[in-house]
Amino acid sequence: MKLDSLVKNDSNEVLTRIISNIRDLINYKNLEPGDKLPSERVLAEKFGVSRRNIREAIETLEFYKLLKSIPQSGTFIANIGQVALNGMVDDILRLRGHDFKSLVETRLLLESKAVELAAKRRTEEDLELIGVALDSYRKKVVNREDALQEDLLFHLAIARASGNSTMNALMLQITPKIISVFENNRVCDDKEDVTNLRKHELIFEAIKNQNVEMAVKSMEEHFATLVQFCDNFEESK
Predict the structure, then answer these.
(1) In sequence order, which residues have a C-beta less than 8 Å from that of residue 234 and are 6 or more positions away?
(2) 127 neighbors 87 (Cβ within 8 angstroms)
(3) What does the alpha-carbon distance between residue 151 and residue 149 come to, in Å, rounded to a whole number?
(4) Could you report the per-residue pLDDT of 103-155, keeping only the tens digit for each?
(5) Model confidence over 27-59: pLDDT tens digits?
(6) What architecture is domain 3-96?
(7) What is the dotted CATH code of the domain comprising 100-236?
(8) Domain map of the chain by residue range?
């Protein structure tokens, strides 16, 4: 396993532990909706981590509407009961621990529905954003440069074009982790990159022409490579 992969795993473990510790602190002090958490500095000292780690954990809990930070005032418990909060934190911790195959399967479901909705609902502005992302991806592939980040932006542009904000948020949550695993374990293949570029172009054309059936089919064919990678990755563990 690469060193950067080990570092990322350690970082994930620290974040998971901090989220769990914040939950335990809320329970121990019987904090209620509207109550204020200790400062980032105090939490960092209490949990033996950096303030950056604390900030990341708080931002994660804010994303799920469990905490609310107010500039110059602090971080407060959101309007949610303790039982519900505990249940949601448990769900967040389970989500963070999902295996790679589960993440890929979930992404496939999201991508298929996202491209279907994008083909139906896309606006000219959406189409322009997808086109810009595609051009960026194309340039990297032509120059034989790593294009994984541009690939991510292309798919996120499609999710945005779906008009479903929840689907877009879920994509933002799970896709970077998949990209990270893929980046740390794949073997670069110029032919594969060129093939994927053509698949991206077919997806874009289907969305542009609002051809729903072709958009979904092209997306599924595009993800055949990721499914194969996932199967090989699970077997090699």
Answers:
(1) 100, 101
(2) no
(3) 5
(4) 778 888 899 999 999 999 999 999 999 999 999 999 999 998 888 888 888 99
(5) 998 888 999 999 999 999 999 999 999 999 998
(6) Orthogonal Bundle (1.10)
(7) 1.20.120.530
(8) 3-96, 100-236
